[in-house]
Design brief:
Blueprint: E1 2-4, H1 5-9, H2 18-27, E2 32-38, E3 48-58, E4 66-71, E5 76-81, E6 91-95, E7 100-101, E8 110-111, E9 115-117, E10 120-122, E11 125-126, H3 129-132, E12 143-144, H4 154-157, E13 163-168, H5 180-194, E14 217-220, E15 228-235, H6 244-252, H7 260-272, E16 277-280, H8 281-284, E17 287-292, E18 298-300, E19 306-308, E20 314-317, E21 322-325, E22 329-330, E23 343-349, H9 352-361, H10 367-372, H11 380-396, E24 399-408, E25 414-419, H12 421-428, H13 434-443, E26 447-451, E27 456-461, H14 470-481, H15 504-517, E28 521-522, E29 528-529, H16 531-536, E30 556-557, H17 562-573, E31 579-594, E32 597-612, H18 628-642, E33 648-652, E34 659-667, E35 670-679, H19 681-686, E36 693-699, H20 700-706, E37 723-732, H21 737-747, E38 752-761, E39 770-779, H22 788-806, E40 809-810
Parallel strand pairs: 14-17, 28-31
Antiparallel strand pairs: 1-13, 2-13, 3-4, 3-6, 4-5, 6-11, 6-12, 7-8, 9-10, 15-23, 15-24, 16-23, 17-20, 18-19, 20-21, 21-22, 25-27, 26-27, 29-30, 31-32, 32-36, 33-34, 34-35, 35-36, 37-39, 37-40, 38-39
Amino acid sequence: MKISYNWIKKYLDIDLPAEELSEILTDTGLEVDGFEEVYPIKGGLKNVVIGEVIECEKHENADRLNVTKVDVGGAMNQIVCGAPNVAKGQKVIVALPGAELYPTGNEEGFTIKKAKIRGVESIGMICAEDELGIGTTHDGIMVLNDAPSNGSSAAKYLGLEPDIQFEIGLTPNRCDAMSHLGVARDIRAYMNFHKGANLEIKTPEVESIEKGASPIKIELEWEEACPYYSGVLLENVEVKESPECIQKRLKSIGLKPINNVVDITNFVLHECGQPLHAFDADVVGDTILVRQTKKGEKFITLDEAELELSGEETMIANKSEGMCLAGVYGGIESGTTEKTNRVYLESAFFSPAHARKTAKSNGLHTDASFRFERGVDPSLVSYALNRAVALLQEYAGAKVVGGVGEEGKLPSLYRSVDFNPKKSNDLLGIEISEQEQEQILNLLDIKVKEKSADKWICEVPSYRWDVTRAADISEEIIRIYGINRIQIPEKLNTSIVLDKGIDRHAWQNKISEMLVGAGFSEIMNNSLSKPKYAEWSEMKERAVTMLNPLSSELSTMRVNAVFPILESIAYNKNRRAESLRFFEFGNSYSFYENEEGKVYQQQAFLALALFGKKGAENWSEEHINFSYFDLKSVVLNLLNRLGLNKNTRWSGIEKDSIYEDGEKLGIAKKKDVVKLGWIKTDFMNKMGIEEPTLIAEINWDAVLELQNMNRVKFKELPKFPEVKRDLSLLLDKEVTFAELKQEAEKAEKKLLKSVGLFDVYEGKNLEKGKKSYALRFVLADENKTLSDKEIDKSMDRIQKSLLEKFDASLR
């Protein structure tokens, strides 16, 4: 939500630096995501000041130019001016060197610089209206009738000074702060409590229109969705451009002015928080009907989108057709236009639940629905209507016909909450005096009506929908008192719990560090994904869909890790990334049906992806793409780190909906713990990725369960030295190293610790069908140092066994 600082100042007499106000808002619970300076006109008239022409003489080299000397406040600038009306003694507007001007109709603009014009130095420019971008007149320079001080800001003089726009990340419970007056209330409470400022909010006063007979009848058919509806008929309305004061406020929060009727309803909305809607009264006829929509009913919105309604929306209609989705969006036929002369102005209270259902079911999100969904202040319904009518009377010549028509009943304006100040201190963990607690509550318009030793009865105003219990009162107190004032204890007490279970976070951190060390980058994708991905994965019938999706593109919970990762790859590839190593921890979602109904499943995964070139381009090395074995080696190292490198079974992928080719891995009794390979070319093309991409999906839940099977064994380091002996054997090509190792271990079970292969030779000087293996044997005794005799005896047994078993010979 955007808030204008200058707009706030209209209601509250403050002049704080933007940084300080940002901290105050954040401390009171209205977290400021950021703030920036905004200007009513492009460029902001920086370095544009008021000046006074002290001298004015004809240019010696040009008949139409004048050489002036202008006092710009502390300096006398010589400026060459071609305006026919420039004269000595005038107050003028001067753009100094460095000023950026955007003349009317010129989007590119230009920067003022020192220059020589026909041989005479000119430092600045005396400006006309169109040169400043504030008008279209170019008959001559602007001559000021009053006498502002020389060197003062032209932007301030013209009422075009910059504003500060705050971006507030509003939490859903703070419906009271969805307006400038609402934000001003919190600032007032903070400043009065902490600074003793004694501020009061200057709420604009308006005259109440008499309630009575209206020419337009209201029929409230669906009171559950709309407890209260009111409206007034206005005639002689001149629809035209809004006055500058209204446009300026709307522009300061990023809204584009449309016309005076629409702009005034938007102005009131952002001023006090009550949405209004203006109908063309000629379309309304003599009756306003608040009803439930019919299933399949068609409705065309203001932006010409045709909707097919579900039958659960609330509709504002005339006798023949729907005119507006209540509290959400107006219709194209009933809106005001330049031809409109009669306006019916609506101000109503719509049920938050029904407003939310109307907005969500049709994917519509507007400023009005944002407020109605969270709950507007019932006390503002009449005030906002009267405020808007007063502005329409002033700026559109509107005339009220009859009185304000109304139907229904507004919710109670106040509610009582029992509160115990002592228990509140226990809850907050800080000692706040009862006097300070009551002071804060009064500043927040929460009145303490009755007091006893252990109970206060507090009356909560209607605009605080979220304050319903004692804990909410405590929250209100601490956010104004200051959460930062709660001391961090010097001593921290905790209980140590012996947990024999698997520490998921610890293992995730270990594996993340390992992968980052291998050059991978961690990514985090949204758990919501596009519904087409479930269809591509042949999981459409088991995909979990959202009841109220924020958008049609994010309406399904992801069924696997593959397609969101491919989106990340495509995004980075389109920004010229040539080598990508990604990993992600996340969850996939699905459901199946049994006799009891739907059973929802959530499965944790670890996904790895390799794309593009294996390394940075280098003149001395070939620039090659990642291979299948690059990804497989990472997976094997990862399993080894987890201690799951035993009892593994690799098998090929067959008839998979996503993978072109690859392998699956089972561990112990777990099937498909890992799946890795190439993604199908068809999917890659749809995602805009031309190069092959390798992805591995690891069932993280299964991996963690297998940790219970992993037993770490320990033994002492050897105290006695190992002995290494080598054998070079000539044997048949068919004999494998694994067979040789197995036979050697069989021949010498006691002293042989390991067998290694350090050389293989085939080819020249060897018989056909033969090869040479060079083997290294490591011998050791844990209890003593081996003697030469013992070593020779063991090697003789090994040698004899290998020569006889494989018909080998020594080389």
